[in-house]
Amino acid sequence: MASNGIRVIPAEERHKADWRRLYDGYAAFYKVPMTDAIADNVWGWLHDPAHVLNCLIAEDASGKAIGLAHIRAMPRPLSGAECGFLDDLFVDPDARGQGVFEALFKAMDAMAQERGWAMVRWLTQEFNYRGRSAYDRIATKTPFILYQRETP
Questions:
Q1: Structure pTM?
Q2: How far apart are CA 9 and CA 133, in angstroms?
Q3: Phi and psi (nearest 5°) for 13?
Q4: Which of 15, 34, 47, 71 is most solvent-facing, going by the fewest CB within 10 Å?
Q5: Are strands 81-91 and 65-76 parallel, antiparallel or unpaired?
Q6: Which sign does the torsion angle of CA 70, 57, 37, 14 carry?
């Protein structure tokens, strides 16, 4: 998919260094330490056809990766169907305001249509004001509250 000179495609091996730069930026934003072991594990998932996680990469006209979206299928038992779940979305700070966010969501919409997902869901942190402002333009905020229980 191309929009404003931005092309969104599945992650390819040639994207590894740019993907890592973007993923490191995402982790830094959430103050989560990123290690080579974690990044290598995720990169492996993205290139394993049997793994549920997918990665869409937004590239500029030169082919440089300027945004990423990690998305996967999520079962919805009450509807007896799957929806998409967006785990991670990050746009290079230097590319913000250029339509990368919109191009990634357009590609996710196409993926959802191809896979029969009625919706895509995601979570974000309360303090992600810029992201939430963008999400508020394109989606409906739900009343759900997220809980987490560590495995004993």
A1: 0.94
A2: 25
A3: -55, -35
A4: 47
A5: antiparallel
A6: positive
Contact 121, 112 (CB under 8 A): no
Check: CB of residue 67 under 8 Å from CB of residue 108. Answer: no
Contact 68, 89 (CB under 8 A): yes
**pLDDT tens for each residue of the chain, 152 residues long:** 455 799 999 999 999 999 999 999 999 999 999 999 999 999 999 999 999 999 999 999 999 999 999 999 999 999 999 999 999 999 999 999 999 999 999 999 999 999 999 999 999 999 999 999 999 999 999 999 999 999 99
Tokens at residue 26, please?
């995402």
Identity (one letter) of the amino acid at 76?
A: R
Query: Which tokens is 76 given?
Result: 């919805």
Owner of token pair 């191009």: 103
